[in-house]
Amino acid sequence: MSTGAVDDIQMVIITGMSGAGKTVAIQSFEDLGFFCVDNLPPTLLPKFLELMKDSGNKMNKVALVMDLRGREFFDHLFKALDDLAETSWVTPQILFLDADDSTLVRRYKETRRSHPLAKSGLPLEGIQLERELLEELKGRAQIIYNTSKLKPKELRERIITEFSVNKKSTFTVNVMSFGFKHGLPIDADLVFDVRFLPNPYYIEHMRPQTGLDEDVYNYVLKWNETNKFLEKVIELLSFMLPHYKREGKSQLVIAIGCTGGQHRSVALTEYIGNYFAKDYHTNITHRDIERRKEKSS
Q1: What pLDDT is stored for residue 204 in this prediction?
Q2: Exposure string (b/e) for 258-278, b if CB count within 10 Å is 16 or more?
Q3: Does 70 count as an annotated binding residue?
Q4: Residue 19 annotated as binding site
Q5: Residues 65-109: tens digit of each pLDDT
Q6: Is 22 annotated to bind ligand?
Q7: Which positions fall inside the RapZ-like N-terminal domain (predicted)?
Q8: 4 annotated to bind ligand
Q9: How far apart are alpha carbons 156 and 147 in whole angstroms?
Q10: Of 36, 64, 186, 232, which sits 20 to 30 A from 12 (CA to CA)?
Q11: Is 16 labeled as ligand-binding?
Q12: Crossing angle, helix 22-31 and helix 152-163, to 10 degrees?
């Protein structure tokens, strides 16, 4: 039995809605070199921790899938999580996978599987019951992915990007542009509406361009109201981000929206994302920037 010091261990507990992608998730962690266990009962978690501690740092990256099994499951899981919070050598992250009801119903129909909680055999009945049971666990999750619009490949890429290095102490700021006419981002934590700013769309030579083009970017940022908005938003975020990080949140999604997600939101997302990149691990994405190309093709 090893009695040496144990380095901090990266542990990810994968849970969430049935059909939301837990199988893809555990396969992705295997690709990253994590020691993976599927369907570990929460009652065995203390014993598993002993094995980890006795392994002499050979199991320093661990991913565990814990599926819904009933009320007893939650009682044991919450107790295990509370016990983990008192350890100094492992800080678990809960990755909660979710999806819209309609998406989950479609996936069950495509696979011809029955939902484990659907007594009548109707998938929606089981999905709604499971969502109610998982509400508290979702509230305790540090990372939540909604996979409704993610293909398996995209979910895999997202996990690999997030967990490719030990990021348990890293706070990631995701800044995203979007167009309100295409709907609000379902995974946004903070949303800022910039439709009040002058719109380059109405300038003919800028209409086919985006906020990534220099003349559009400069046009958006030249207005006094734009600079006042950036001043206030950066001041607000500079106050909020350290508190989110201190609270234990591993990532924050900041969404900047204009009408179509092509001009104003793109330029401001670039500015804000680059501003905070000096202090935080930052990702910049533009959700709707390719929609015009898709429509014209």
Answers
A1: 92
A2: bbbbbbbbbbbbbbbbebbee
A3: yes
A4: yes
A5: 887 655 566 677 777 777 776 665 676 788 999 999 889 888 877
A6: yes
A7: 9-166
A8: no
A9: 11
A10: 186
A11: yes
A12: 50
| Residue 18 annotated as part of some ligand binding site | yes
Give ∠ CA 226-229-232 in degrees, rounded to 5. Answer: 150
Query: Which two structure tokens, joined as six digits, stand for 290?
Result: 């390719």
103: tokens are 């998406």
pLDDT for 39: 83
DSSP the chain: ---S----EEEEEEEESTTSSHHHHHHHHHHTT-EEESS--GGGHHHHHHHHHHTTTS--EEEEE-----HHHHHHHHHHHHHHHT-SSEEEEEEEEE--HHHHHHHHHHHTPPPTT-TTS-HHHHHHHHHHHHHHHHHT-SEEEE-TT--HHHHHHHHHHHHSS--TT--EEEEEEEEGGG---TT-SEEEE-TTSPPGGGSGGGTT--TTSHHHHHHHHTSHHHHHHHHHHHHHHHHHHHHHHHHT--EEEEEEEESSSSSHHHHHHHHHHHHHTTTSEEEEEETTTTHHHHHH-
Q: Is the pLDDT at 5 greater than 60, yes or no? A: no
Q: Is 68 annotated as a binding residue?
A: yes
Any binding-site annotation on 67?
Answer: yes
Which residue reads 């996936």 in tokens?
A: 107
- Annotation-wise, does 257 bind a ligand? no
Q: Is the dihedral of CA 12, 14, 20, 26 positive or negative?
A: positive
